[in-house]
Structures are given as structure tokens and as C-alpha cells.
UniProtKB/TrEMBL annotation:
PANTHER family with a match to the protein in the record: HTH-TYPE TRANSCRIPTIONAL REGULATOR BETI, HTH-TYPE TRANSCRIPTIONAL REGULATOR RUTR
PROSITE patterns: HTH_TETR_2
Coiled coil segments of this chain: none
Domain of life from the UniProt record: Bacteria
SUPFAM superfamilies for the chain: Homeodomain-like
Name of the protein: TetR/AcrR family transcriptional regulator
Keywords: DNA-binding, Transcription, Transcription regulation
Length: 195
């Protein structure tokens, strides 16, 4: 039992260290020795838990996807219970996206997905999980959406989430809160405008 707990702690420390180092130095520029030092584990322990740095990236994507789905699930419950309007739901979703802290890491992971099919598959699977919630939110804004229009709404919303998650590079003029509120209003208007 102690060994299992130590392995879980090591796994968590490695992912936390990877998140920090990959974000600040880049995926390819971070050595396994640096990662081991930051995580306070041996290089051997890293290789016992992960086959490669690509496996670490996949684990980070899975962890992020799990958290995002948990957050979207909570928004869905609040929307379904009437605690939030659809406008407030989109605003909350967008503020979570804008407040994403690992922007550089996210870019590095996306770039790696173009070089590595396994990472691309992991990101694709993550997006499939998101699509379930996104479709539900789109239908809550306009219950007439179906077929191609609903598929297009999904694509638009995913693009908004990806774009707003990387907005700092464009030197935005609006605060995160204002951007989330105004973008939510525009999304709702666009979704409701589709016949």
C-alpha cells in the first residue's frame, strides 16, 4: 500500500514539475534530468511511470481534459437546475478558458500534436469529450439547432475556446471578465440567430 501511494505521489510530482518546466522552457528543451530534479524523483522513477516525454504530455492532456469535463459537468448541472442562465453558463465557461494559466505549455502541446500522432489522438479524444457539453450548451441557447447547424455551432464554440485560451499573445484590450461577458453575449446572439 505504501508503494502504491509513493508511486501516486511521484506521478503527481512529475506531472506538476513537467507542467512548470514545459511551460517555462518548452517540451523539447527540458531534459529528463531537469524534470527529475524539479520533481524530486530519480530519472529511473520517471521511466518506470512514463515511457517518454510524449507519455508525460499525454498524461497532462488527460488531466486537463478530466478537469475541464468536471468543470463543464458542473456548469451543466447548474444550467439544468436553473441556477445559471445559458448566458451565464457561457460566460463562466469562457472565463475559465481565458484564465487558463499554462498558455505556453498549451501551444507546445498543440505543436507536438502535429509531429506526434499519439499526442494528436489524445487531443482529438479530449475534444470529443468537450463536444458533448458544447452541443448541450448550444442546444440550450437554441433548441432548433440540429444536423449541420449544430455541427457548425460545435466548431465555432471550440474555435472560440481555443482562441480565447491563447488571447494574451494578441495583447487584448479587455479584461478577462469583460471579454468573457461580451463574447458570451455574442455567442448567444449568433446561436439564436440560426434558423
Amino acid at each position: 500500500m505504501v508503494a502504491v501511494q509513493q508511486e501516486k505521489n511521484g506521478h503527481a510530482r512529475i506531472l506538476a514539475a513537467a507542467r512548470t518546466l514545459f511551460d517555462s522552457h518548452g517540451f523539447h528543451q527540458t531534459s529528463m534530468a531537469e524534470l527529475a530534479s524539479e520533481a524530486q524523483v530519480s530519472v529511473g522513477q520517471i521511466y518506470r511511470l512514463f515511457k517518454s516525454k510524449e507519455d508525460i504530455i499525454e498524461a497532462l492532456v488527460h488531466d486537463d481534459a478530466d478537469q475541464w469535463c468536471k468543470d463543464m459537468g458542473a456548469l451543466q448541472v447548474r444550467l439544468d437546475s436553473g441556477e445559471l442562465t445559458i448566458e451565464q453558463t457561457f460566460e463562466q465557461l469562457l472565463i475559465q478558458t481565458i484564465d487558463e494559466k499554462d498558455e505556453a505549455l498549451s501551444f507546445d502541446i498543440l505543436a507536438e500534436s502535429f509531429r506526434n500522432g499519439e499526442v494528436a489522438d489524445t487531443i482529438g479524444a479530449m475534444c470529443q469529450r468537450f463536444r458533448v457539453y458544447i452541443r448541450s450548451f448550444a442546444c440550450a441557447a437554441n433548441d432548433r439547432l440540429s444536423g449541420e447547424a449544430l455541427d457548425a455551432a460545435e466548431e465555432m464554440l471550440l474555435a472560440c475556446l481555443f482562441g480565447l485560451g491563447h488571447r494574451s499573445i494578441s495583447r487584448p484590450r479587455l479584461s478577462a471578465e469583460v471579454a468573457a461577458r461580451r463574447t458570451a453575449q455574442m455567442i448567444i446572439a449568433a446561436l439564436r440567430g440560426v434558423q
